[in-house]
Design goal:
By secondary structure, the protein is mainly alpha-helical. The protein is about 70% helix and about 0% strand. The chain has one domain.
Length: about 90
């Protein structure tokens, strides 16, 4: 469980940092420069940060499900039958 929280904290930190940068770029483009290309870059950066965070949550949930999943039924080998000699017909 410790590893899962580390991954989640890293995804939160990276996603939050990139989201902050994206929102700063977006607000700069809307209020200061008025450039449409900077607006697209800001929106794309913010959406990318959300996707990075969602991927981190997905990785943590997947790993937790794999740790807690049922491992299946133990199989015992079947005893092999004794082979009979081949009968040749001429």
């Amino acid at each position: 469980m410790k590893k899962n929280t580390n991954i989640l904290h890293a995804a939160r930190l990276i996603g939050g940092s990139i989201l902050t940068i994206g929102l700063l770029i977006l607000s700069y483009s809307l209020f200061v420069s008025g450039s449409s290309t900077m607006t697209g870059i800001g929106i794309g950066t913010a959406i990318g940060a959300v996707f990075i965070f969602l991927m981190g949550i997905f990785f943590v949930a997947t790993e937790e499900m794999l740790e807690k999943s049922y491992k299946g039924i133990p199989l015992t080998p079947i005893q092999a039958k004794k082979e009979r000699p081949l009968r040749r017909s001429f």
